[in-house]
Amino acid sequence: MDKDERQRHASSFGAAAVAYAEHRPDYAAAAVRWALDGAPGQRVLDLGAGTGKLTAVLSALGADVVAVEPDPAMLAQLRGSLPAVPALSGSAERIPLADASVDAVLAGNAMHWFDMAVAGPEIARVLAPGGVLAGLWNVMDDRVDWVAGLARVGGGEVIGPRDTPAAWRAETAGTHLPRNGAAPCFGSPEQAEFPHGQRRTADSLVATLATRAGLLVMPQADQEATLNRIRTFLAGEPATARGEFTLPMLTAALRVRRL
């Protein structure tokens, strides 16, 4: 995906901000604790915070958190749901915080959108010495048969390589590196994964998948055709056809330290 296409995908979420806030999952608390392990303090920036899914977990864990989000619609949802958390307009490439003002920077399902040639030095600027940068991704566990079937039916625009346990490590291992070959601002990555799940119905799972960037940028006819295929699949699958079920997931995490 080239820079323009990545930007088009990254900026697509605002149109679905209300649905994103309602349907997207949070993050496994164990993964967030791991991401923060070794940070020199409790001051945390949730960068590309969206509607506050990760922000809420950080707050519940007692972090002194500030959120930064570029999309006005997403930011409005975050401020409405978490009014006590400072939430600022900004981006990974232009962070509205002072030098060395946070001990950790976390990004939930967002770090792959950053232009690390610009964002890397900017994140390093706001991190205190010894500070931590971590990306977290919720991946669907396609080792479960029906989830693997869902991935086949939905296609790569719905569940891509970064969204499954088999491939997420390779897909995200270099997420902290600048794409232009410039010197990195962070050390070698550590990766870990943690069990997670989300209670869904067939309808709410379809609504969740409809907030994915690959679907949001599709022409409407293609989007409707894809969602209809998914509905048909879920209606015919014993695990998902009736009532609530648990969508099996992992929260996958990558952690690096400021050089």
Please provide a written account of the structure.
The model has no long low-confidence stretch (mean pLDDT 95). Helix 2 (17-23) crosses helix 9, helix 7 runs antiparallel to helix 11 and helix 9 (202-209) packs antiparallel against helix 11. The chain has helices at 3-10, 17-23, 29-36, 53-60, 72-81, 116-126, 145-154, 168-172, 202-209, 213-216, 220-236; strands spanning 43-47, 64-69, 87-89, 102-108, 127-140, 190-200, 245-257. It contains eleven helices and seven strands. A seven-stranded mixed β-sheet has the order 3-2-1-4-5-7-6. The protein is 37% helix and 23% strand. Helix 4 links the parallel strand 1 (43-47) and strand 2 (64-69). It has 259 residues and is of the alpha/beta class.
pLDDT below 50 for ≥5 consecutive residues: which ranges?
none
Gyration radius over CA: 18 Å
Major sheet details = 7 strands, mixed
Dominant shape: globular
Order of helices and strands: HHHEHEHEEHEHHEHHHE
Gap from first CA to last CA: 28 Å
Write down how many β-strands occur, each being a DSSP E stretch of 2 or more residues.
7
Order of strands, widest sheet: 3-2-1-4-5-7-6
DSSP helical segment count: 11
Class derived from helix and strand content: alpha/beta
State which percent range the strand residues make up. 15-25%
Helix content: 25-40%
- Average pLDDT, all residues: 95
